[in-house]
Predict the 3D structure of the following.
Amino acid sequence: MADFTTANLPGSNTFFNAVRDKASTMKDTLKDRMEIDASTLSATLKTDLLDVGDKLKTMIPELPDLPDVNLQAELTTLQSLAGSSRDTALASLESKFGSGLSAQGVELDGLVSKATDAFEAGKKISAEIPNFTIPAAGGDVVEKAKEVLQADDGDIEELLSDEVNQEIVEGLKKIAEESQEIQQEALIEKIKEAALEPIGYIKKETNTFLSDEETKEIQEGLRKAAQESVQTIPV
């Protein structure tokens, strides 16, 4: 671990160093006083622990008692107001968020209009308006990530991916098989037409009939070609 007590070390912090040194002192105290009774050691450590707590507070400021003011919540409340009450609420929002939003290139009036449109359309305002907040005691306007929405209805049964894939695979397989059967039948019909056995085959060159052996050889060739054609049809 880097020695954060080194002078001019980038990333060092005087408040952290103070806490670190006090913790090291307490560790040494425990080692040196292991032989004394627990009550005496407890009294010594109590003082050291209070000192560490004070030093930690200088590093980490205490959280405010009041929660941050949330723009989404304020705009939702605004929808139930009318007349002078609504005007007062708008003025309060302007004083809290107006300048901070303008510094980020956002105008409060535009967000109010969007919130009203969403409310009238039955939509959640939080889905349409960024999640801006500001400390209750005043400060900088900060945009936070949108809060996770809670479901209004019961859950929907999840369809597992393997079930979806299996259904798709079975459908494609059925289509491929039907297509293959149609192609096979069409090919077989063509082969039958070409392979019908006539009284005899005539040699073109000599104008004489083929012998039984030559005819058989041609028919075997046709059957082999038909089988190879069917086997090459993709599934």
In short: The radius of gyration is 43 Å. Helices lie at 14-32, 38-59, 71-78, 83-103, 108-120, 161-195, 212-231. Residues 14-59 form one domain.
